[in-house]
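Need residues for this backbone.
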């Protein structure tokens, strides 16, 4: 029996499937987003960018990947992080100019160096500044482009932090925000301990008809379905669970339609997608940079292989395209069954939006 869920909408945008890909620092570039879309993600978010970087952005070859959006990946969101409301609005304007369909404000990053510069999750401690950022961003972004916010459930579990969370959430909606994504951990938790899904239930009940997406501990297609069913949120954003596993989106679509869980991708399916990812990376970064860039993805793809440890070690040492092909030829020569991923394969990485 399929779970009764509505298609996700963000403002005027009809998104479709309620299972989408989160912004992932250092990961959700164009190749990752494009592949996720091909495998069932209805919407993806670019890796978070600093407002000051965007304000001073020079459209040079080495930087162009940050704002690259292809015609066939819409709708796609651009996520922004910063400290000062005025500069934040200027950064949002650059994302609009680059062609992003949604502007997402990051009030959730728990990384220490980010908090130390009064960015990301730090804003959950100062509702007035947070809402001024929202106000200025909404004012500068054209009305037809939705503005959204990413939050954690608070700085910590104090009553003051809880009050600030709801002050920011309600205020943001009043200022015209189209949707809010809530991660079920506090900023203080970072990535330690479980994401509190019961808080998402409370938030959705409080929000009513307003659009709430949930985040945290989504490592399998079943996790995505369970969060939708248990909390009543309008959508879920897959973060760590999507790195090296874009098949999670097709698997979630099947479960939501009442179909059996598809088998994990076989080694031949994995091999072809890894090759395609490498080609897209070369297209975006150039041959000389793509090998280094792809190693971190290769390590994640290796988790689907029955010989995970051995394949991971081989991929870590790769320096050239020829070495990539040699690893694929050695370890992906037989079309053996792959593996499903679990949370044990997704230890915290220490960068923003990795929940």
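Answer:
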């Amino acid at each position: 029996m399929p779970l009764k869920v509505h298609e996700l909408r963000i403002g005027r945008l009809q998104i479709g499937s309620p299972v989408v890909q989160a912004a992932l620092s250092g990961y959700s570039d164009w190749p990752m987003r494009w592949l996720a879309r091909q495998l069932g993600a209805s919407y993806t978010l670019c890796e978070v960018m600093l407002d000051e970087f965007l304000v001073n952005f020079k459209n040079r070859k080495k930087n162009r990947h940050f704002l690259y959006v292809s015609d066939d990946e819409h709708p796609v969101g651009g996520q922004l992080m910063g400290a000062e409301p005025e500069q934040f609005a200027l950064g949002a304007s650059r994302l609009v100019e680059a062609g992003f369909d949604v502007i997402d404000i990051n009030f959730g990053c728990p990384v220490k160096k980010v908090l130390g510069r009064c960015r990301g999750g730090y804003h959950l401690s100062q509702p007035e500044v947070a809402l001024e950022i929202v106000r200025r961003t909404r004012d500068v972004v054209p009305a037809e482009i939705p503005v959204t916010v990413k939050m954690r459930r608070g700085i910590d579990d104090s009553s003051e932090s809880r009050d600030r969370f709801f002050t920011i959430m309600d205020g943001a909606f009043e200022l015209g925000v189209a949707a809010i994504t809530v991660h079920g951990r506090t900023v203080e938790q970072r990535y330690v301990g479980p994401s509190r899904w019961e808080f998402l239930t409370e938030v959705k009940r409080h929000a009513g008809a307003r659009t709430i997406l949930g985040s945290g501990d989504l490592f399998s297609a079943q996790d995505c379905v369970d969060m939708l069913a248990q909390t009543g949120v309008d959508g879920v954003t897959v973060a760590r669970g999507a790195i090296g596993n874009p098949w999670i989106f097709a698997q979630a679509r099947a479960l939501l339609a009442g179909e059996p869980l598809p088998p994990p991708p076989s080694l031949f399916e994995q091999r072809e997608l890894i090759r395609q990812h490498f080609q897209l990376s070369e297209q975006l970064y150039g041959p000389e940079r793509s090998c280094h860039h792809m190693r971190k993805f290769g390590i994640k793809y290796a988790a689907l292989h029955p010989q995970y440890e051995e394949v991971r070690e081989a991929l870590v040492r790769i320096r050239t395209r020829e070495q990539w092909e040699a690893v694929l030829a050695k370890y992906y020569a037989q079309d053996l069954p792959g593996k499903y991923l679990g949370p044990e394969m997704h230890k915290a990485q220490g960068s923003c939006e990795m929940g």
